[in-house]
Amino acid sequence: MKKMILLPLVAALSLSAASEGEKLFDAKCGICHLKTRPSDKSSLVAPPLMGVMRHVKMNYQDRDEAVAFIGAYVLEPKREKAVCMPHSIKRFGLMPSQKGVVSKEELAVIASWMYDTTGGMKKGMKKGMKKKGVSPFLITKGLPHLTGMLKKRWDDKTLALTDTQKKELLRIRKSTLKAVKKLKPQVAALEKEIKTMLQEGVKESKINRKIDELAKLKARASKVHVECLIKTRAVLTKEQLRALMQKRRF
Question: How far is it, in rounded angstroms, from Cα 160 to Cα 162?
Fold first, then answer.
């Protein structure tokens, strides 16, 4: 009987908190941030709520962390902490500090409502982000990663790699990984920016410029990959290469 009484009470309290969060948002944030994306974006003075929360949830999937981030950022905004894309900051500028406008307690209520009222990423998307990384290469299939294959068969008697070969192969691998590691986050950031620009209705000419930048980065990464293949093949004998590749051709 007690449970039957408590359930409606808990639901009522949750609705009350949500209502208070929305009221505070309207009073403290609504003057700049619209709740929905308008058809005419030319009059926007700040990113809409849905856009802001999409980026927040991409960076902070845990609810408590997201709420804490919003509360801290609103009071002390910093460019290095911003989750919005660079072109959004360029358009709207960095958000001014809201100290004296909204209290920490009010921010906790507002941020909780913001998190709960906006949709999160789908489970499939979250899994995809964890399992499938961004490829920095133009050619994603067909070109083998020879140094990786060799690493798995480092002491294989069939290959019989010499110490001199191993030393040179390690040097090639280290140099390649260093170059690709430097390019990969740049590629990921550009891909993310292009997707956001499309969603926000940015001009096609601006999006195309970003695509050109992305293509150049991926071309550089692909050249690094090809160079690694050629150098690795040069270290191996024909017999070793044949044993490594078996029936695979490239």
Answer: 6
